[in-house]
Amino acid sequence: TREERELELFLREALELPKTKQEIVGQMYIRVTPALSSLALVLNLQPILSNPVTQYDEHALLIPTPQESAILARRILRLTSLGTFSTVFQKNLNRSSTSDQFSYEAPQIVEHVPQGIENTPIGLIEYIADCESSGNPTVLAITVATTFKNIDAGSNVSLSLSWTPPYAPSHKFFSKSQLEYSAANLPRFSLSGHFESIDIENVNRLSIEKCFLKAHPDARIWLPGNKIHKSEWKRFVVQHIYWIGGFGDRAYIGWIPKDMWEDVQEQDIDRAHLPGEKKKLKEFKIDWL
């Protein structure tokens, strides 16, 4: 089949590489040159080599540093438009709540809250956008949403993001070559922080509305001042970053300092490369060498 022919071609190319490059083929790998940050993240293809390497040149194969992982995390934030916000249900949830619809007189709605639900965490997906150079995600906060009701009641909040390749290889193809595509080998991370409002001056200066609608055109109907829900522009101010880059023998797992997160440059985000980001099979092979 075409897939088998492509695999055969890849094997031939890989085995013709100099030894130092054979040693790093297929590993989750980041190479940073002295002149510029050139990053590449690929899946583990080591098992297909005829002579799997058991010892590695420490200069050829590197587990990404926290700083390099920060760049990859910022790349994920740039390409990801949905995130899971986790909050905790607070006390006094059994009180009646009034709809925030203000285009007409709405009746009170009684929330049938189960007993004992207070102090229970809940994770819900919300729209996000990367609109500020500081790495603080932008959110269109709708006051009636559970996430923001919990926050207003005093809950802490965290945001979880993960990388899902838009062009991931098929399980069928990789199983034929004795390779397993594993979501567990893909990066994900959690951001802890708090929300703060974005004033109208900064909304205009940073083109927040334009940036957000580029990622979420349908959100136009919920913009501040709409007649459906009360909403407000907010930024999620990042305080702590916990990163899981993939399998622990080839990826960094741990905390990323806040200053590293904030100091990531636009050119580094643009140069970073995630697996399956583009529609071509060889992206999971050796075109990053």
From TrEMBL:
Cited InterPro entries: CREG_beta-barrel (IPR055343), Split_barrel_FMN-bd (IPR012349)
Domain CREG-like beta-barrel: 64-261
Protein name stated in the entry: Putative fmn-binding split barrel-related protein
Lineage of the organism: Eukaryota, Fungi, Dikarya, Ascomycota, Pezizomycotina
Alphabetical list of Pfam families matching this protein: CREG_beta-barrel
PANTHER family listed in its UniProt record: ADL397C-AP (PTHR37273:SF1), CHROMOSOME 8, WHOLE GENOME SHOTGUN SEQUENCE (PTHR37273)
Coiled coil spans: none
